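Sharing a chain and its predicted structure for anyone who wants a worked example. Both blocks are below, sequence first, C-alpha cells second.
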Amino acid sequence: MFKSGFVSIVGRANVGKSTLINNIIGEKIAIMSDKPQTTRNTIQAVYTDEESQVVFLDTPGIHKPKNKLGEAMVKAATDATKNVEVILFVVDDSKHIGPGDRKIIDDLKRLKTPVLLVINKIDKLEQKDELFDLIKMYDKENLFKEIIPISALKEKNVDTLMKVVKTYLEEGPKYFPDDMITDQPERVLISEIIREKVLHYTNEEVPHGVAVEIEKLKERKDKDLIDVSAVIYCERDSHKGIIIGKNGRKLKGIGKAAREDIEFLFGAKVNLQLWVKVKENWRNLQNYINDFGYNDKN
C-alpha cells in the first residue's frame, strides 16, 4: 500500500525547521542561517521512497510581526496548518516554554489535526535527565500524539521521525514525480541562495531588510554555462555600504559563495553578476512585498 500526504512544519524562528527539511530531503532546498526569520515563504519539499510520498511544508518562523512583510510571513505559516494530515511542531533545547512557543501551542490546541512534537538540537543537551525533563514538560500540555527528540544538524533520529510521520498517512497517490524535490521555481531557489549568503556575510542590522530579485536567468546554447544577474535590495544607504564592503570585498565573497551553491544545484558553470540597490522601507510597502514574492498567495 502506497501512502501519501501533506505535513506542515511549524515553530518559532531559528529552531531548525529548514535544517530538518534539508536533512530529510537530502538536498539543500531551504536556506539556513542563525539569523531569525530566514525563511520567508512556505516551501513545499517532496520526500519520495518506494512506499510513500510526503510533502512537507516548511513555514516561516512564527513571531510577532513588526511590518507588512512580517504579517505576510506569519499568515503563510498559519495557513500552512490547514488541510494537512500531520503537523510537526519543532522546538529547540530551551528549558522553558516561552511566550512564542506558548502562543503556537494554544493555537494548535484549537485544531483537530494530529500534532507531533519534534524536540530539535538535543546534541546541545549535556545530560539525559535534561531531555527527560523537556519531554515531561511538553507532555503536560496534553496536545502531542508523539514526542520525538532529534538533532537535525547531526542527523540524529531523523529516520525515526520519518517512520512515525508515515504511520499518520493514509493510502494515497503520488502528487509529484519521483525526481521532484521542491515546488520552488529556479529563480526563487537562486534568489534564496544569494539571500542566504548575504545573511552569512552581514551583521545583525542588515539581513531582515534584504530581498533579492533575479533580473536575468539564461542558459547559453553554445556552452554549458548559465548567466544570472541579480539585484540585492536593502533599505538604507548604510546597509548598501555594508553589503558591498571595503573595495567591494564583501559583495565578491557573497557572489563567490552563492555561485558555488548555484553551480552545485544546477550541475553547470554559472556566470553570476550582482548589484546592490536601495529601496527604503520596502518591508512596509505592499507592492514591493508582492514584487519580491512575499505575499498571501505563497
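Comments welcome. The mean pLDDT is 83.
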